TrEMBL record, chain A:
SUPFAM superfamilies: Periplasmic binding protein-like I. Residues 84-320 form the Periplasmic binding protein domain. PROSITE patterns: PROKAR_LIPOPROTEIN (PS51257), TAT (PS51318). This is Sugar ABC transporter substrate-binding protein. It is found in: Cell envelope. Pfam families: Peripla_BP_4, TAT_signal. Belongs to the bacterial solute-binding protein 2 family. Residues 1-26 form the signal peptide.
TrEMBL record, chain B:
The keyword Glycoprotein does not apply. The lineage of its organism: Bacteria, Bacillati, Actinomycetota, Actinomycetes, Kitasatosporales. It comes from Streptomyces sporangiiformans. Its main location: membrane. GO terms for molecular function: transmembrane transporter activity. This is ABC transporter permease.
């Protein structure tokens, strides 16, 4: 992308500034449009007209619509998916939804109108995505639903978010039985704002309370980020200084809980404390590897997800019978050094 | 004994100092009631450990709220503080992670914050662009810049850097000491320095202030820079406390929280009035409310409702009470 140069007077006036910035914005927008314009829009139109089968032969672009751009996983996925797509001569487009369902709908409608041949979308509101998916299918495009299923779709990439929570809850319950004699106190850091969070929360709480009924549940607090996890756990500790277990719907919130417990005086390897989260984020993985009381994370492998983002649309395009994929979630604990190193290596690919 | 009402310039009837302060800052009464209710219902709200936790959590809010309040009093606004906080935390964490001393790490963060503040200041004060639009744009731009620079979470900053957020000075958590110094500096600046009076003058009537010989650009520009520096310092403290920083989520929504604290504290969004004591009360109110609702184990959505209602009630009281006091 280039930035045009304009003569600037030695004394910058407001009018000069406004005209300069207006021109710069316009030029930047035009340049950006040029950069991202479909190189084969005519071909795409034709493919759409002939239906998905014809699109298959011309799958040159995949649109990845992952709305949670603030998450570290986003940049890792884009990096890995872009590299994976490139191997097959496919370019990867991305949206910038900024966790906003309205923005997501607008961006997806734009892609459908532009006939992006394959769209992989993680709907924030599945009901809202249904008519857009239908429009995409009607236009002969490939629609792959990420993280769930829609009525109108070519295929899906499934994760069992509830299973991730279940794995974590089960591990914590087993630990409580072995180390606390089935007694103690637990706080859950939950999320009830999006489907993914609700599923993880339900899996985590149901599994734990079923397998460790003697452990007292002292709090269920909304927290998905470390700041909130820290503040909430500090408050819980004020009332329950003997809190034993903190389970988080995300690794980020659990990491805040981990820090709150440390700041309350727990040693890093305290034998009667268990913290666990979900995602497989780098700080948590490192804490697990070091043998701290951050003991477990239900982790998704970015490499597997990125592979599915490219391979599922290709499988649909190739007319394969069962193109959908289910990405496994694995629980990593202290001692799983090989798995942790592999996850850390995959995560680090988002940096370069 | 009589006192002079500064607003009216004439003597008024005797009024105990405490009552007068409460009249000017009705949030004191709300805060006291809130503390009483939470203590009676939870039994642990006033425990030293809990109060220490509230103070530590509220410290970063206070550090940013004070300069932001001065900026609002001068008639401007900075909505980019959440992203600046994230950038400051990331820069400090990254430098610490590279083996730099904590001092260098913090100075790096402060420089980043000053740069953001200077851009805001030039655009708003010298080019006359809308502070709302400029800083809203910077909120997005700085966040994107931080995510581009640091797409992955940073962690493991070392024990030296942990001092900033985790150490205690005379038994008080370091972030609380820093917040106390910022509050004191802000109060002294407003009360005792000519520049402090200029802040009010510019906020009340910019043209009149200009005609009085006050540099109506330099003062708010400096406040923009100081606000950026404060946000970055808060980010460095948060990064130290958490021993991690995430570009996408650190400080997300912080701008609204800090602005809420400032407005709750009685600072007029239109500029020209406000006090550091009011800001402190706003910060304590927000921190105490959040903590108390968690102690009560109030379900998530009820917490949100209760917070919203309490904020509106507090703001209404702060708005109406001074009028009735006159």
């Amino acid at each position: 992308m280039t930035t045009p140069r304009y003569p600037v007077d030695s004394v910058t006036s407001r009018r000069h500034f406004l005209s300069w910035s207006g021109a710069a914005v316009a030029a930047t927008a035009l340049t950006a449009a040029g950069c991202s314009a479909p190189s084969g829009s005519a071909a795409s139109d034709k493919a759409a007209a002939n239906g998905t089968a014809a699109t298959a032969a011309r799958l040159t672009k995949i649109g990845l619509d992952y709305p949670f751009t603030q998450l570290p996983l986003y940049s890792t996925l884009v990096k890995l998916s872009t590299a994976g797509a490139k191997k097959h001569g496919i370019s990867l487009l991305t949206t910038s939804d900024a966790s906003n369902a309205d923005t997501q709908a607008t961006n997806l409608n734009t892609w459908v109108a532009r006939k992006v041949p394959a769209i992989v979308s993680f709907p924030m509101v599945f009901e809202a995505a249904e008519p857009i998916a239908k429009a995409a299918m009607d236009a002969g495009l490939i629609w792959v639903t990420y993280g769930g299923s829609l009525e109108h779709q070519s295929a899906d990439i499934q994760f069992s978010f509830r299973e991730g929570g279940t794995l974590l809850g089960r591990a914590a319950a087993e630990w409580a039985e072995q180390n606390l004699g089935g007694k103690g106190k637990i706080a859950f850091l939950t999320d009830s704002t999006i489907e993914l969070g609700r599923e993880r929360t339900k899996g985590m709480i149901d599994a734990f309370t079923k397998l460790a009924p003697g452990v007292d549940v002292v709090a269920r607090e909304q927290a998905i980020d470390p700041d909130t996890g820290l503040a909430k756990t500090k408050a819980i500790l004020a009332k329950h200084p003997d809190l034993n277990i903190v389970l988080g719907v995300t690794d980020a919130s659990a990491y805040g809980g981990f820090k709150a417990l440390q700041q309350a005086g727990r040693s890093k390897d305290h034998g009667k404390t268990f913290v666990g989260g979900q995602d497989g984020s780098a700080p948590s993985l490192l804490a697990i590897k070091q043998g701290t009381f951050y003991r477990a994370s239900a982790a998704l492998a970015p490499k597997d997800i990125a592979g599915a983002i490219v391979d599922v649309p290709r499988a649909v395009a190739a007319g394969k019978a069962n193109p959908s994929a289910e990405v496994p979630i694995a629980l990593v604990q202290h001692g799983d050094d090989k798995e942790i190193d592999a996850l850390l290596a995959q995560n680090s690919q988002g940096t370069s | 004994m009589t006192t002079v009402d500064p607003a009216l310039g004439r003597p008024r009837a005797f009024s105990p100092v405490g009552l007068s302060v409460v009249r000017r800052h009705p949030l004191i009464a709300v805060l006291a009631a809130m503390v009483l209710v939470f203590q009676l219902t939870t039994g642990s709200f006033l425990d030293p450990a809990n109060l220490s936790g509230i103070a530590t959590d509220a410290a970063t809010l206070a550090i940013v709220a004070v300069p932001l309040a001065l900026l609002v009093i001068s008639g401007y606004l900075d909505l980019s503080v959440g992203s600046t906080l994230a950038l400051g935390g990331l820069v400090a964490g990254w430098l610490a992670g590279q083996g730099q001393s904590p001092v260098v790490a913090v100075l790096g963060a402060l420089a980043a914050g000053a740069a953001v503040g200077a851009v805001n200041g030039v655009l708003c004060c010298y080019l006359g662009l809308s502070a709302f639009i400029v800083t809203l744009g910077m909120l997005a731009a700085v966040r994107g810049f931080a995510q581009q620079l640091f797409p992955l979470p940073l962690s493991g900053f070392g024990s030296g850097f942990a001092w900033l957020g985790g150490s205690r000075i005379a038994g008080i958590a370091a972030p609380v000491v820093v917040a106390g110094l910022v509050l004191l500096a802000g109060a002294l600046f407003l009360a005792l320095t000519p520049a402090g009076r200029h802040v009010f003058a510019v906020g009340v009537n910019r043209e009149a202030a200009y005609l009085s010989g006050i540099n109506v650009r330099r003062t708010p520009f400096a406040l923009f820079v100081v606000t950026g520096v404060a946000a970055a310092l808060a980010g460095a403290i948060k990064a130290s406390v958490l021993d991690s920083a995430v570009a996408g989520t650190s400080g997300a929504g912080f701008e609204l929280t800090v602005l809420t604290a400032v407005l709750l504290g009685g600072v007029a969004l239109s500029g020209g009035s406000g006090s550091v004591l009011g800001v402190l009360l706003g910060v304590l109110f927000l921190g105490g409310l959040q903590n108390g609702l968690t102690l009560l184990n109030v379900p998530t959505f009820w917490q949100q409702m209760a917070q919203g209602i309490a904020l509106v009630a507090g703001a209404a009281l702060a708005y109406f009470a001074p009028r009735t006091a006159r």
